[in-house]
Amino acid sequence: MNRTKRTLLSAALLVAPAAVAEPPSARFPGEGFELRVYQDAEQAIPPSIFSIPGDGRHPDPPPGGAFRSSCNVFLVIEGDRRVLVDAGNGAPRGSLLAKLRADGVDPATITDILLTHEHRDHVGGLVGPDGAAAFPNATLHALVPPGADPAPLRPDLYELRAFADPAAATNLPAGFVAEPGPGHTPCHVFYRKGTLLFVGDAFHAVDLQIFVPEYCAKWDQEPATAVATRRALIQRSYTNIPKPKPNRITPLSSPPIDHPPLFLCGAHIPFPGIVSKIHLPMASANESPSFDTPDPGTPIPAEPRPPEPLVKIRRRADADPATNAPPVR
Ligand SMILES: [Zn+2]
User: Fold this and answer.
1) Banded model confidence at residue 236, pLDDT cuts 50, 70, 90
2) Ligand 1 centre from 271 Cα, in Å?
3) Is 89 a residue whose pLDDT tops 50?
4) Which three-class secondary structure state does DSSP give residue 151?
5) Domain residue spans in the chain?
6) d(CA 60, ligand 1 centre) in Å
7) C-alpha torsion angle, residues 271, 269, 58, 52 (rounded to 10)
8) Which run of H or of E encompasses 191?
């Protein structure tokens, strides 16, 4: 798979987008479906937005002064379902409608919209420039916990299929399942499809928060919970195992990975909005942490990828073939 590795260092090398016309979407083929990503709006976020709960200090500014970010909207096309994950900002900031049309997608053909939460940059685009529903034939799906106000989700314009618990969202389209994503807002929820996990606003500046997940944007309403959610996500996209010492098989000292690594699809992960792999070096290693983003056109793995084997275990000639244990003498 062809991926672009980005590191904290490489962020310094990013330059302004080229002046050539970009295609309106980045496309990723899946097995039986296609993922398209649209950049609804560009954005960068200054360090003053971030702090660690209980500590008023802000992170050091990155090169250029602000953290790379984006406003992305995802579209999954599977059979007769056209499913948006969030709806973007809407006019005047958002360009989703124009980009969908430029990409050959009539907004009236969108069948479903999975909302990650109720903030303006995710639900503003539900309303078209004329004040009517921008996606007139879409059904909305959203977490609305008891006591939460569904009004920002615009149930006045759409059929809203609200669920009070992600586990109860059993009727989502195209094989999506909902997962808890607590911490950002009361309605914040994740959606999973195969190896894709749509994480909404779990990350606002991935260059910062993957490496120090304790940093919260000021928009995280329950910061301590948001930190725990972010940490869990990093574990699920963490695919490397600390390197062993030379000439020695080192037992895995890190917690075993008990779930498949996932592609994290984030509304504010720099376009095209996907982190496909996170590399966390050992604390003692002289390496920088890094993460990969897939290039457009990269196939989405159908099956969970196993962790990368960094240790080749040589089989003893006299070992038990099932367990590799030496014979008892
Ligand atoms: Zn957002």
Assistant:
1) confident
2) 14
3) yes
4) helix
5) 3-15+22-294
6) 22
7) 180
8) strand 189-193
CA of 267 to the centre of ligand 1 (A): 6
Say what the pTM is: 0.82
Residue 262, pLDDT score: 83
Least-confidence region, from 89-98, 199-208, 239-248: 239-248
Instruction: Give the H or E element holding residue 142.
Output: strand 139-143
Please give the structure tokens belonging to residue 240: 């490397």
Query: What span, in angstroms and rounded, lies between the C-alpha atoms of 261 and 307?
Result: 7
Question: What distance in angstroms lies between residue 203's CA and the mean position of ligand 1's atoms?
Answer: 9
Task: Report the range of poorest mean pLDDT among 51-55, 107-111, 183-187, 279-283.
Answer: 279-283
User: Which pLDDT score is estimated for 246?
Assistant: 44
Mean pLDDT, rounded, of the chain: 83
Task: Annotate 10-49 with DSSP letters as a single string.
Answer: HHTT--PPPSSPPPSEEEEE-SS-EEEEEEEE--EE-GGG
Please give the CATH topology (third level) of the domain spanning 3-15+22-294: Metallo-beta-lactamase; Chain A (3.60.15)
Mean pLDDT of 168-193: 95
Instruction: Find all residues with CB under 8 Å of 157, minimum gap 6, and list them.
Output: 126, 127, 132, 133
CA distance 34 to 29: 5
Burial of 329 (0-12, 13-18, 19+ CB in 10 A): exposed
Distance (angstroms) between ligand 1 centre and the Cα of 84 equals: 15
Please tell me the distance between residue 310's alpha carbon and the centre of ligand 1 in angstroms.
37
The phi, psi pair for 231, rounded to 5°, reads -60, -45
Tokens encoding 253? 């000292």
* The pLDDT value given to residue 247: 44
Q: How far is the CA of 245 from the centre of ligand 1 (A)?
A: 42
